[in-house]
Design a protein that fits this description.
The chain is α/β, with parallel strands linked by helices and 631 residues long. The protein has 20 helices and 24 strands.
Length: 631
C-alpha cells in the first residue's frame, strides 16, 4: 500500500511508546490518525499532530488526528472507537493493534484470581487484538477496499521470556493468530505481525537491565517504525512476521527451511515411479566433467565425458537440470585428491571423480517418495555440479526462488561468509573487521555482512576495479596492495589491532594479518588460495611462534570448513536471499562469461589468475538460461 495523504488509520495504545511513534510517523505521511488509548496522554499526541499539520497549507474539512479514550478489553469502548473513526474519516485503510501491557507479578505467585494482573494481560495483549482485527476486517470487507492490519507482537512471542511467561504467551498467540490470516490477502486485506526486541519505553523499564545488555541494547524507535511501514507498503507481505533485533536487524520469521518442516506437501500418486516436466526433456545421456587423474592442474586432471542417466530413479532421488555452476578456488584441491582421506594411491583408486561443488537448476524428474515438485528451482552443494544433469538425494536439495548466477554466489561463497562470521568469528557490532581477497566470491559477502552488522570494515584487494567494487559494497577502508603496503597501513591506521579477521589468502598474508590481530581478536581461516597453485600443488607452511602469539594476546584462530555446518545451510541461504531481494545485499558476479562445460577449465584458471571480480560462474546451458530469464 502506498502511504499517501488521505488514507486513514486507527492505532490502539497510541498515547505513548511505539504507538505514539507510529501515530506521528503516519501523520507525517498525510494520513489521518485516530489515537485510541485508555490514557489521556492520547490527547497530547493528537494535539501534537494537529499543531504540526496546522503549519501546512490545507483545505481539509476534518482534523488530521483525533483522540478516543478506549479500554481495548471493553467491547463497547472498542465499537465506539471504530465507529468514531468511521464517522470522522469515512473509511479505514490501516489498523495497528499496538496496545499491550506486562504482568507485574508471576501468575503462579499471584494470590488473587488474576483478574487485575495476568488475566488482564491476556485480555489486553491477545483477546483485544483478536477483537480489533475482527472489527477492522468487517469494516474493510464492507467497503470493498484494500486494507492493512498490523498486530504488534514481540520477540518474546518467538522465543520464551522467562521473566513474564504470560506476556510471552500472549505475544506468541498474536504471532500465530496473525500468520493464520494470510489467506485474507485474496480479499485485499493483509494482516501482518511486527515482533521487535526491546525498545526503550515504560514497558521495557520493567526488564532486568542485564537482559537488555545481553541482546545488544535497546532498538531505536525509528527501527521499529520502519519495520511497521515496510509491512504496510510491501504488497507481497500477508501473514508475515517481521522480527527486529539489535543483533541481526530485520528478518522475516520463520525461515523458509523451518517453514518447510511443517507445511503440508501435495503427495503425488504412487502409480507412476516419477514425473517429469514438459519444459525439460530428460535425456538418456548427458555430459559431465570428471577427474580422471590426480593433478593440482585442473585442466590436466579433468575431461568432459558422456554418461548414461541411470534409470529408474530411486524413490528418494531427484534429477536436476543444471543451469549455473559455481567455480571455487578449491576445485584444484579436489582435482589433486586433497579432500579424500588416505594416501595418494588410495585416493587414485576412487577415480574417476565427479567434479564441481555447487550449482543451481530445475528439478526435472523425481522419485516416488520425493515431495519436492517437478519444476522447482533448487540449489545443491554436492560433488558433480559440473554436469548437464545430476541425480541427487532430495535431502541435499535446497529450494531457492530462482536458479540464477547470483544464487550460485550465495552457496559456497555466501554461506561460508555468513556462517563463518557468526559461528567461528562470533561477530558482534562495533568491531573492526578485516577481509582479505575481499573482491572475490566470498570476500564480497563478508564485507557486506560485517557492515550490515554494524562494524567498521577494512578490505584488501589488488587493482583499481576491485577497489572500486569494494567501496560500492560499503567497505570503510580499502587497501589496494598494488598501491599500498598492507602491513604498513594496518600498523599506522589500526594501532590497537583488528578485532575479527576473515582470511582466505594464506602464506605471507596470514602472517601480516596475525600480527595485526587485536587483544581478544578472532582470526577465521577459510582457505589459503596463495598456496593452492604451484608446481607441486598445495604446500602446507610452518608458522613458528604461533602458540606464543596467541597466548600473549588471548587470541583465537578458528578454522572453518563449510561441510561441517550443513545443518545451517538452508537457514543462512534464506537469510542471504532475503537481504538480496530487499536490496540490502549486492551480489557481484564476474563479468567474464563462461558458457558450457568446455569452458570450466578456463573459468578455474581465470579465478586463480587474480583477475576475477566477484563470483566466477559457468552457465552450463546458455540457451535454457535465456528461456528462464523470460519467466
Amino acid at each position: 500500500m502506498e502511504l499517501k495523504a488521505g488514507l486513514s488509520a486507527i492505532v490502539t495504545g497510541g498515547a505513548s511508546g511505539i504507538g505514539k511513534a507510529l501515530c506521528l510517523a503516519l501523520a507525517q505521511k498525510g494520513i489521518f490518525v485516530t489515537v485510541a488509548d485508555l490514557s489521556e496522554k492520547g490527547k497530547e499526541v493528537a494535539f501534537l499532530i494537529e499543531k504540526e499539520n496546522a503549519k501546512l497549507p490545507s483545505k481539509l474539512q476534518v482534523p488530521s488526528a483525533i483522540f478516543v479514550k478506549c479500554d481495548v478489553t471493553d467491547a463497547n469502548d472498542l465499537a465506539a472507537a471504530f465507529n468514531k473513526h468511521l464517522e470522522v474519516y469515512g473509511g479505514l485503510d490501516i489498523c495497528i493493534n499496538n496496545a499491550g501491557i506486562a504482568t507485574p507479578l508471576l501468575f503462579h505467585k499471584d494470590k488473587t484470581d488474576g483478574s487485575g494482573t495476568w488475566k488482564r494481560t491476556i485480555n489486553v495483549n491477545l483477546t483485544a487484538v483478536v477483537d480489533c482485527t475482527r472489527i477492522a476486517i468487517e469494516i474493510m470487507r464492507a467497503r470493498k477496499k484494500p486494507g492493512v492490519i498490523i498486530n504488534m507482537g514481540s520477540a518474546s512471542g518467538l522465543y520464551p521470556m522467562y521473566a513474564d511467561p504470560i506476556y510471552s504467551g500472549t505475544k506468541g498467540g498474536v504471532v500465530l493468530f496473525t500468520r493464520s490470516l494470510a489467506p485474507l490477502k485474496r480479499e485485499g486485506i493483509r494482516v501482518n505481525v511486527l515482533c521487535p526486541e526491546f525498545v526503550q519505553s515504560e514497558l521495557a523499564m520493567m526488564i532486568n537491565p542485564r537482559i537488555i545488555d545481553a541482546v545488544g541494547g535497546f532498538l531505536s524507535m525509528e527501527e521499529v517504525v520502519n519495520g511497521a511501514l515496510e509491512l504496510i507498503k510491501d504488497e507481497s507481505k500477508a501473514g508475515a512476521c517481521l522480527w527486529i533485533t539489535k543483533r541481526r536487524g530485520m528478518e522475516y520469521w520463520p525461515s523458509k527451511s523451518v517453514e518447510g518442516k511443517y507445511k503440508l506437501n501435495q503427495y503425488k500418486s504412487r502409480r507412476s515411479q516419477y514425473t517429469t516436466t514438459s519444459d525439460i526433456i530428460v535425456p538418456d545421456t548427458f555430459k559431465k566433467i570428471i577427474v580422471h587423474t590426480l593433478d593440482h592442474n585442473f585442466r590436466s586432471a579433468t575431461r568432459v565425458v558422456q554418461t548414461h542417466l541411470k534409470l529408474p530413479i530411486k524413490p528418494e532421488n531427484a534429477v536436476v537440470k543444471i543451469i549455473y555452476a559455481g567455480v571455487n578456488a578449491s576445485d584444484v584441491n579436489f582435482s589433486s585428491g586433497r579432500y579424500f582421506e588416505g594416501k595418494n594411491n588410495e585416493t587414485a583408486a576412487r577415480l574417476p571423480l565427479d567434479a564441481g561443488f555447487e550449482a543451481v537448476g530445475i528439478i526435472a524428474a523425481v522419485g516416488d517418495s520425493v515431495h519436492l515438485k517437478v519444476g522447482t528451482p533448487v540449489a545443491f552443494m554436492t560433488f558433480g555440479s559440473y554436469a548437464e544433469f545430476s541425480v541427487i538425494p532430495a535431502k541435499h536439495l535446497l529450494p531457492v526462488p530462482r536458479p540464477d548466477a547470483e544464487v550460485v554466489a550465495m552457496l559456497t561463497s555466501g554461506l561460508t561468509a555468513s556462517i563463518a562470521l557468526e559461528k567461528a568469528g562470533q561477530m558482534e557490532n562495533g568491531k573492526v573487521v578485516l577481509v582479505t581477497a575481499a573482491a572475490g566470491g566470498t570476500g564480497q559477502f563478508a564485507v557486506q555482512l560485517a557492515k550490515l552488522a554494524g562494524n567498521k570494515v577494512v578490505a584488501t584487494c589488488g587493482g583499481a576495479d576491485k577497489a572500486s567494487l569494494l567501496r560500492s559494497l560499503g567497505a570503510d577502508r580499502v587497501i589496494d596492495y598494488k598501491k599500498e603496503n598492507i602491513k604498513d597501513v594496518l600498523m599506522k591506521e589500526y594501532p590497537k589491532g583488528i578485532d575479527i579477521i576473515y582470511e582466505s589468502v594464506g602464506g605471507d598474508m596470514f602472517n601480516i594479518c596475525l600480527n595485526a590481530l587485536a587483544v581478544y581478536g578472532r582470526f577465521i581461516v577459510i582457505g589459503m588460495i596463495s598456496q593452492y597453485q604451484g608446481n607441486n600443488g598445495w604446500q602446507p607452511l610452518k608458522y613458528p611462534g604461533l602458540c606464543e602469539k596467541l597466548l600473549a594476546k588471548s587470541q583465537t584462530v578458528a578454522g572453518f570448513f563449510l561441510i561441517h555446518y550443513a545443518h545451517l545451510w538452508q537457514e543462512h541461504l534464506d537469510k542471504l536471499f532475503d537481504l538480496y531481494s530487499t536490496g540490502k545485499l549486492k551480489v557481484a558476479v564476474d563479468p567474464k562469461r563462461f558458457n558450457g562445460l568446455d569452458s570450466v577449465a578456463d573459468a578455474v584458471e581465470h579465478l586463480h589468475s587474480g583477475k576475477s571480480l566477484g563470483k566466477v560462474v559457468v552457465c552450463v546451458d546458455p540457451q535454457f538460461s535465456k528461456t528462464m530469464a523470460k519467466l
